[in-house]
Write a structure and sequence with these properties.
Elements: H1 3-9, H2 18-26, H3 34-42, H4 45-55, H5 69-76, H6 78-93, H7 100-126, H8 134-141, H9 144-152, H10 154-167, H11 171-179, H12 183-194, H13 198-206, H14 217-232, H15 250-258, H16 267-273, H17 275-289
Helix pairs in contact: 2-3, 2-6, 4-6, 5-6, 6-8, 7-8, 7-9, 7-14, 7-17, 8-13, 8-14, 9-10, 9-12, 10-11, 12-13, 13-14, 14-15
């Protein structure tokens, strides 16, 4: 058994939460009935409660109170709702760890992931592009491979963090030294065994290497740019970034090339605007974990 298989198969990562699996299976049908989705979600009382909390939160600013799963589908839209359910079910399953050494790292991981999702969502809104919530859920899951590595051996991941800082190299390079593989490889393996939608799999497998992408480049670039900004603004996950030169940052080049309106983008002003996004990330964390 390879290190990768051992890392995944000995943990809960080997299978996606049952509700999420059933929903993804339903979505393969072009003639999906939203009542079927509602029935599946309603079989999990905790998930239903969390979904309604999220739907009624400032994150989505619905005009009327959402009191049922069917109403949530009508209000938020099927794609958005299924992505939120996917995010919540994965998040809830992997938020806590029995390992004391892993607990702080996992909390930091989810804080970074939530912030990346919120910033990606804001960026998409800023350029009037809407990705059916894939930018938010993609932000939430982009580093899922790191979570598997932390839960597999938190002590080793602390060593990754130490080497990243000491040698001034990237997290991917340090992970290769310590684990003989990196979080992109691990995340891609997880996305494939979970049979995640292509948009989300693309973000997980290529957010650090946009040049390899023929499709979904803009979506992956939005998540990656949000990821970079969060690393620089204190909501980091030890990637090893010290500063960013927009002219050299691949995600920014992809976005500014695709959306010329970004040539007048004021990053400093955007930084101030994002204060609410970090508050929203805290709101999301609180909604999902309580």
């Amino acid at each position: 058994m390879s290190v990768l298989e051992k890392m995944i198969d000995t943990q809960e990562f080997a299978t996606l939460p049952p509700v999420a699996t059933r929903i993804l299976k339903l979505l393969e049908n072009d003639n999906i009935d939203f009542r079927d989705i509602a029935r599946i979600v309603e079989t999990d009382a905790t998930l239903t409660l969390k979904l309604l909390k999220v739907a009624n939160s400032p994150l989505y600013a619905t005009r009327t109170e959402v009191s049922s799963v069917q109403q949530a589908i009508v209000t938020l839209g099927l794609n958005r709702l299924t992505n939120i359910v996917l995010g919540i079910s994965i998040f809830s399953r992997f938020f806590l760890s029995s390992q004391k050494q892993a607990a702080d790292l996992i909390q930091k991981f989810w804080w970074h992931s939530s912030c990346t999702g919120m910033v990606a969502k804001s960026l998409a809104e800023k350029i009037n592009r809407f990705y059916k919530e894939n930018e938010f859920i993609g932000g939430l899951l982009h580093d899922i491979g790191k979570l598997a590595m932390i839960q597999y051996d938190a002590k080793k991941y602390h060593e990754v963090i130490r080497i990243t800082a000491q040698d001034k190299i990237t997290d991917v390079e340090a992970e290769k030294k310590v684990f003989e593989l990196d979080h992109i490889e691990v995340g891609t393996y997880i996305a494939n065994i979970w049979k995640l939608p292509l948009d989300l799999t693309t973000i997980i497998s290529n957010h650090n290497n946009l040049k390899e992408l023929d499709s979904n480049r803009e979506l992956a670039a939005i998540v990656r740019f949000a990821d970079v900004l969060c690393e620089l603004w204190g909501a980091d996950m030890y990637e090893g970034l010290q500063n960013v030169d927009l002219n050299k940052e691949e995600s920014w080049r992809v976005l500014s090339s695709s959306y010329p309106e970004l040539k007048d983008f004021d990053l400093e002003a955007f930084t101030f605007e994002l204060e609410q996004d970090f508050k929203n990330a805290s709101t999301f964390l609180n909604l999902i974990t309580h």
